[in-house]
Specification:
It is globular and about 65 Å long. The protein is α/β, with parallel strands linked by helices and 436 residues long. The protein is built from eleven helices and 14 strands. The strands form five sheets. Strands 10, 11, 12, 13 and 14 form a five-stranded antiparallel sheet that branches. A three-stranded parallel sheet has the order 2-1-4, with helices on both faces. A two-stranded parallel sheet has the order 3-5.
């Protein structure tokens, strides 16, 4: 939402607010609000709590949450949050689920916004954050019918990669807090340790519930997109559908999202630009979520954002991403960047901070995923930096051309000894070393 990367926002936990730690950065909705758009938040856009008090008021003209009005609200403790998933019969849904309620609200809101938007008098920026498929998986029972039990497969690789450093593994505590997924319930006190996962039957059960939840929210998104069409907004409205992370469903004996594995970091990103993407375009090029901000700004007809300076903590408006519009013109643009980056913290936090002691910094190219695990040095005023000489563990190298599931860490293979220094240099150099 800020178009900045984690080491710039300095946000590494859900207890950190970017405006306090990183800088008073302009967000995507704030940019449009300040440029004459009616900026509206629905559902889970900012995470909430300490990470964005009051849904970040500078970003919005209007905020709506249905989470206190849905069927699950009266049963929060213990109720529907006690177990990892639940399907609802039609009789049980005396009130809708939260994503259905918010989809209804979005559709009604668009009806009131459409006349002004179509006339060009009152443009709007509307962001709708769906709550699912976040845990627990909650959905109408009918969506289970899309996935018969005998159609659910087990992961191809229910084991950690050969040669993986222990620091790369997450014990998926988030999922194990649900009663039906606890070590006690499963009958295995070692659950969550390396290579200790659920029995096959539980794995299939959870995968089926996740698939059903995804189909449920997909239907809600479809209802809203249908309304965009029916209101005559499709030909002058930019639409972006994206998710903030991937998800592990037993691959590498992992669950949820707290790793550097590609499956936990690769996410959907679908964009509609009126008249430019009507025929459907796909690209094999590497893109990042920081690319969304500069793309929307240019697609809406504004001047391109400046690239952020080396120290951008005092720069309210700039970008650390790249506009995707060149890929709309040519999905295989040869001058496009050839690497993307992500990171994840480990080994707890430095005392009295929300800054990890160690960090796994990752670079992804067309051929490789390479990660270095290093210590984090604290600086003044909440700043920090990677200490590339403080090795926290063995690095990771996965050859995605022959091992797309990341099942073998090839960091010690002689065949790759020339590639590793190049990847390390590009990783440490960061995104600025890439063509813009």
């Amino acid at each position: 939402l800020t178009g900045r990367r984690p080491d710039t926002t300095r946000v590494a936990t859900l207890e950190s607010y970017f405006r306090d730690l990183g800088g008073n950065f302009t967000t995507i909705p704030q940019f449009f609000k300040e440029n004459g758009y009616n900026s509206i938040s629905v559902g889970k856009i900012f995470h909430g709590g300490n990470s964005s008090p009051g849904d970040d008021p500078p970003s919005w003209d209007e905020v709506f949450h249905a989470s206190s009005k849905d069927i699950t609200w009266p049963h929060k403790d213990p109720g529907f949050n006690k177990y990892s998933w639940k399907s609802f019969t039609e009789a049980e849904l005396t009130k809708p689920l939260v994503d259905t309620l918010e989809a209804d609200w979005v559709n009604e809101k668009m009806k009131s916004l459409a006349p002004g938007a179509k006339s060009g008098v009152a443009p709007f920026f509307l962001a709708w954050g769906l709550h699912k498929p976040h845990l627990p998986f909650l959905f109408p029972e009918e969506y289970l019918d899309l996935y018969p039990e005998d159609s659910i497969s087990l992961p191809n690789n229910p084991y950690v990669p050969e040669g993986m450093p222990d620091i790369a593994y997450s014990n998926w505590n988030e999922l194990r807090t649900y009663e039906d997924c606890s070590g006690t319930s499963i009958g295995n006190d070692l659950l969550g340790q390396i290579n200790v996962t659920f029995p096959d039957s539980k794995t299939k059960e959870l995968r089926r519930a996740y698939y059903a939840t995804v189909s449920y929210v997909d239907n809600e998104i479809g209802r809203v997109l249908d309304e965009v069409e029916q209101l005559g907004l499709a030909e002058n409205t930019i639409v972006v559908v994206w998710s903030d992370h991937g998800w592990q469903l037993g691959e590498h004996a992992e669950w949820a999202k707290h790793t550097n594995f590609e499956i936990a970091n690769r996410a959907p990103l679908i964009m509609h630009f009126p008249k430019n993407t009507t025929g459907g375009l796909r690209t094999t090029k590497l893109v990042e979520m920081v690319d969304i901000f500069p793309t929307l700004v240019e697609a809406a007809g504004f001047d391109p954002l400046d690239v952020c300076p080396m120290d951008s903590h005092g720069a309210a408006l700039c970008t650390e991403g790249s506009s995707l519009l060149p890929l709309v013109v040519n999905p295989e643009e040869p001058e496009w960047k050839d690497a993307v980056f992500w990171q994840y913290g480990r080994r707890g936090l430095h005392p009295n901070t929300q800054i990890p002691r160690k960090m796994g910094y990752t670079i992804r190219t067309q051929k490789y995923r390479y990660t270095e695990w290093v210590g984090i040095d604290l600086l003044e005023d909440g700043a920090y930096q990677p200490n590339w000489e403080d090795k926290a563990a063995t690095s990771e190298l996965y050859d995605l051309e022959i091992d797309p599931e990341e099942n073998i860490n090839r960091i010690d293979y002689d065949y790759y000894k020339n590639a590793i220094p190049v990847l390390s240099q590009k990783l440490r150099g960061g995104w600025r070393r890439e063509p813009t």
